[in-house]
Write a structure and sequence with these properties.
This protein has about 475 residues and is mainly α. Among the domains are: about 245-355, no CATH class; about 360-475, no CATH class. The protein contains 18 helices and three strands. It has helices at about 10-40, 50-55, 65-75, 100-105, 110-120, 145-165, 170-190, 195-210, 215-220, 225-235, 240-260, 270-280, 285-300, 305-325, 350, 355-360, 360-390, 400; strands at about 420-425, 425-430, 470. The chain is elongated.
Amino acid sequence: MATAGTRKPVWKRIVRFVLILVAIKVGVFAILWARWRWSSPRITYNPWYEYRAEYESHPPEQRAWDALREIAASKTITPAEGSALDAAYPPMREDAAFEEGREFLKQWSEELLVIREASERPVLGYDYEQYKETPYDVLLQPGGEHLGKLRSYARLLMLDTRVAVDEGDIDRAVSSVRAILGLSRQLRSAPSDMGKLVGTALTAVAVNELSSMDQQVWASMTDAHLTSLDTALAAIPGRDYSGVLASSERAFKDHIQRLYSDNGNGDGHVCALGVWYFADAGGLSESQRTSLVFNSIVLHPKMLQRREAREASRVAVEDLSRWLAQSPWERTAPTFAEIPKSVAGRSGAALALLPLTYMEVIPRIASSIESTVMGRDAARIAIAAERCRRQRGAWSGSLDDLFPSPSDVPLDMFSGQQLNFSIRDGRPFVYSVGNDRDDDGGRSMPMGERQKAVLWKPAGDPEVVDADFVLFPQFDE
């Protein structure tokens, strides 16, 4: 028994000191955690509500998706229903499944009428319930169920075009191509990034179908057929990047609103709900999630703050705008997907500016838009050439003869000059010089690799391809 004035052993005093220190640290951490967890909640933003409100502001007879969704609810196209639609491209006349496809179409005759009618409507909107809580854009949300249905409808129209040509029903073939172009136009005008990509692909599909028709089929088209096709092609949006810019702005706004709290003055730190959102969106493991939570609690005063993140995102979007504003043949290597120097090295910058990672795909999106526009222009050149042949009784090999004004002549995205046009094998032949920026006389790569020639690359990049990109006819080697 210790007497008064007897001091405790040193080891006991050390243990008590350590326990007190640990208790203080745990208490401080608990206070920080509670403040972090229950302080200013994040402000969520989801453009789904705006999209739905805008879509529903149009009268029902203008809303294409209402009609297409009726088909989706009652009859679904799946590969199991017939090998005619099992592949990305329906069969050609020489394929064994072509006759099966002809029978398949008979089961879908009424639905095809509805699809064609819907393709003429002005507005294609999406209002699936899943987008209430999930970011909409491709930058943070890859695709959607409705786009899969639209691809199926496009394949159905492609098959119908080929069967109609085989049966000599040119009016039906032209109607199906125009329907593909109508769906493409609607998708290109929709606010979804993924929708725009699918829309550009559908334009290429329609041009493919036109270019696969031999000259005898083209000669059997009436002037009214040519006019209707030209009108449908002209309605496809041109080199318009406003959607890409708006989507990038929305992606940053949505991400920052979900990640940060707001103290009412535009400032704020990474909040608890923001961490859960990021962990779920990024598929983080438990250890990564724990580390992120700890850093957000302890280090948030030193991490990139809300106001700084918004400013850095503004700089990135401005850089993107300047890059897209340049003519494609003048562009240099992009810098908009890099963390701005003003915040580089700051803790949490990569977390706060996550959409920068997804902006790396924008040059590919730009290439897709540009190649689609050139494909559209090439098809219009073919139509103009056919009209000229009928008027003069012979082909003209000059674009200046086909377009009344020099400003109307389509340009090559890689050279800034007129697209290359000639008559080969008794039909129009149109090509771009490709990303090596030199004319190889229309020498193209094999079909499976030809897209490499149209991917945007800075001049001199080692990945440019020494070949041209044939735009029309696209099925020729």
